Amino acid sequence: MSNTTGKQNDRAWESLFQKYKVLSHIEKDGSFIVSASQMRVFREPRLMAKIDHKINLPEIFTKNNLAILPISRGEYIIAHMEAYQPFQTLDHTITKVSLPDHIQSLDVARISSEAIAINCALASGILADFLEDEDLIATVSGRMGSGTFAFGIQNTTNDAVNRITVTNAQIEIDAAFEGIHRLSIIEAKMDLAEDFLIRQLYYPYRIWHSRITKPVHPIFFVYSNGICHLYEYQFQNPAYYNSLELIKHKRYSFEDTSIQLSEIQEIAANTQTVTEPPIPFPQADSFERLISLCEILNIHTLTCEEISEEYAFDLRQADYYTNAARYLGLVDKCCNNDLPSLFYLTAKGKKIINSNYKQRHLAFCTAILQHEVFKKVFTHYMDFGISPTIQEIVKLMQGSHLYNLKSENTYKRRSSTVIAWVTWMIKLTQS
């Protein structure tokens, strides 16, 4: 992919910063207020301001430790702000649940949206178990105004706390459930990410914290690869944006997730090695995110730029992960003259991603172990109980006729993916 392609948001923000001398204003005043009408000259405001993950920040924001938050229905503040929070994992176990027998309109094999995922979580008892509340009733959801509130947010360049006032900014709540003891507000996503925008929890929390006497519990809900990930947070200081603390995390599945190591060993023993494809050897360490990409492409055919703008991938990662999925035969691309390539699931990819949890994961293992170097590293792990060293993996890679790998450093960088994918397969048996 050409480095000159760039993201549309990068180009739009670069032009806006130049026109309004944004960096000079921030240096002088500590922040810059930009209106939707000013943004619309360069690109649709909702696209420019939709930056759900740190990795999606435009380059000029990243270089200058900046973030953007809405402060009214048509205005945003740009400043040195710590706006994002990394996800943490507290619990690796998976709790098996199921839908009630009388429910016919929900199908766990066809969860295609956040709303359906939440409905399945409610019907299966996931929410009752996680929220530990009784008589849950769906209440406030959808778009609404924020009202007026002020808060402090951590400055990213020093120890100072920036003060911000919000007046009737538009927010959207994916779901909220009130029980006997508390109101739980849910932000839901269908793709895995390393972090999230705290605003998605904080603004709804501030609204309802001031309106009701019950405790308000912000919940982040992620459904991906057949697993419901639920994170419960608490703002230790309601007036401080960065005071959130993860107090509980659990994972649930509607399907049997038990996979035996012997099943993967059998695949390794019986799977025939394929000829290495003329596709860059993978540099995509998170196999869970590769699966998440396949789930995305099962719904949409997208360019790398669209993947990077809509989901938690930057442009380079979108390139790496689409190529990794192509390497395994799960994804292909179509080219149309000078237009960006469109990526789509192959028939093999669709069959795998639309199968049940166990079939899907064993099929992914098969796709990996069809490649010589992965099979050899997995076999070494089984024989000796530890992974080969990086130097040993590089030697195995050098003897596996990989496409267009030349330098020693490139082999070493790509060896991390070999280790990561083999480790992922082994961890499947430990859930």
TrEMBL record:
Matching Pfam families: DUF6996, DUF6997, DUF7226
DUF6997 domain ranges (all copies): 80-253
Domain of life of the source: Bacteria
Domain DUF7226 span(s) in chain numbering: 289-429
Domain DUF6996: 10-78
InterPro entries given in the database record: DUF6996, DUF6997, DUF7226
Protein name per its UniProtKB record: Transcriptional regulator
Organismal lineage: Bacteria, Bacillati, Bacillota, Negativicutes, Selenomonadales
